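User: tokens in, sequence out, please.
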């Protein structure tokens, strides 16, 4: 059974993070803890709704903590990574890189613009964050995040200043560049993971794969269907100088390249291996796979890379997915399949963070507030992941939303009586009145005669 002291467990979970919310003069740890509770308790996860429901909370203090106070959100994320690692058994851990879009209206929110929103499956006005997650077996936990700043933002200092983007962050960095930074950051606190996984948004960039390979990171990345491969070592060479002419600079090879789709399509039916990936809600999840050692050469490097090619095909379908991996030459097909399957659980982590922790429900515009909200959401998501890990052997159907429902039931609330409800509504009206009054005064207008009635 779930333990009755879940409130105490949540307080103990927050304790290692408390010092990260302190500055030289004050601490906002109490407001951060109230915000954390609000991510579970409030039906709409914005500061106003949190202040209405979370016992002991104050709207102004929560707003100051999220949007103004300069607490160490990077340190919070480092602590999230270390806390997450402690709950995952050693071996078989993946660091999965993925991104998520957050639909926004207007043009003032930091980094907002018309860009691909994977959540909606289309180009939309949104912010995009690049995330890192620790994944193992059927559990994944988000451990780091950074907001992507489009190039037009980086080239507009005034717009950046209005959104509170620090000067050192006003530099365009591609999503893959941010991802590489997340991977390096994960290594700095000596976080232990066995490979890096990512989708084709990163795997289609040859420099990203070679950079990971050169840094000694084991990876399995999805690549496009027209990825060029060589079945034999292209052994690139530089042609000899033709008489008195200039010496050739470009490397050449006599090997004939192919692409991954052409190769996979030519394989006989008996070459495909059917393998179980996991137990799903509707039964076993099974797919078919091909694997082969191939050479990858970009036409410029002095030598080709000798990597694994993994091809996945859904049962009864013809859609193929292709991955390249620099895993050890002795890596089995089963090992490669498990590496590829780790990405699935990060999609689940995003779903849980959005549905159970309000990751997409923020109503802030500034750079600092975006990263503060993400850090607190990742603390909240970590707690849910820990609860599921602790109980998966006895309560394998337990979901993050199940844990949140228990938290809502057990955590103290401001509204326990009719009088509390009336007081909450009156306070909401007062804030709206003050905001509207400020708007009139800011524009030199006189409020209408009926303004404020019923407050």
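Assistant: Sequence out:
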């Amino acid at each position: 059974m779930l333990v009755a002291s879940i409130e105490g467990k949540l307080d103990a979970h927050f304790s290692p993070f408390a010092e990260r919310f302190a500055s030289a003069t004050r601490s906002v740890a109490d407001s951060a803890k109230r915000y954390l509770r609000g991510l579970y308790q409030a039906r709409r996860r914005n500061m106003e709704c949190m202040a209405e429901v979370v016992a002991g909370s104050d709207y102004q203090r929560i707003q100051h903590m999220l949007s103004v106070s300069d607490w160490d959100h990077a340190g919070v994320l480092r602590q999230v990574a270390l806390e997450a690692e402690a709950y995952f058994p050693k071996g078989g851990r993946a660091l999965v890189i993925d991104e998520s879009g957050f639909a926004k209206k207007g043009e003032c929110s930091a980094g907002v613009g018309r860009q691909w929103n994977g959540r909606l499956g289309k180009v939309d006005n949104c912010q995009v964050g690049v995330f890192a997650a620790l994944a193992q077996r059927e559990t994944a936990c988000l451990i780091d995040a950074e907001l992507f700043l489009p190039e037009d933002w980086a080239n507009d200092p005034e717009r950046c200043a209005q959104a509170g983007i620090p000067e050192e962050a006003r530099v365009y960095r591609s999503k893959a560049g941010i991802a590489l930074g997340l991977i390096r950051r994960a290594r700095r606190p000596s976080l232990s993971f066995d490979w890096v996984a990512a989708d084709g948004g990163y795997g289609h960039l040859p420099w990203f794969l070679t950079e990971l390979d050169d840094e000694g990171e084991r990876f399995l990345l999805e690549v496009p269907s027209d990825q060029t491969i060589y079945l034999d070592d292209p052994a690139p060479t530089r042609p000899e100088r033709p008489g008195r002419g200039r010496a050739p600079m470009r490397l050449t090879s006599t090997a004939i390249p192919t692409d991954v789709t052409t190769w996979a399509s030519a394989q006989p039916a008996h070459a495909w291996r059917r393998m179980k990936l996991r137990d799903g809600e509707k039964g076993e999840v099974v797919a078919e796979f091909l694997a082969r050692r191939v050479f990858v050469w970009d036409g410029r490097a002095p030598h080709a890379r000798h990597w694994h090619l993994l091809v996945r095909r859904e049962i009864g379908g013809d859609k193929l997915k292709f991955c390249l991996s620099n895993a050890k030459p002795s890596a089995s097909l089963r090992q490669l399949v498990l590496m590829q399957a780790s990405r699935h659980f990060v999609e689940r982590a995003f779903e849980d963070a959005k549905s159970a922790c309000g990751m997409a429900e923020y109503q802030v515009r500034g750079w600092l507030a975006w990263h503060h909200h993400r850090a607190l959401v990742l603390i909240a998501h970590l707690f849910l992941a820990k609860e599921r890990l602790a109980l998966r052997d006895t309560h394998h159907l337990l979901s993050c939303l199940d844990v949140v429902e228990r938290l809502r039931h057990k955590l103290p609330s401001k509204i326990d009586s009719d009088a509390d409800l009336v007081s909450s509504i009156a306070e909401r009206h007062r804030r709206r009145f003050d905001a509207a009054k400020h708007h009139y005064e800011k524009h030199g207008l006189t409020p209408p005669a009926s303004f404020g009635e019923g407050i």
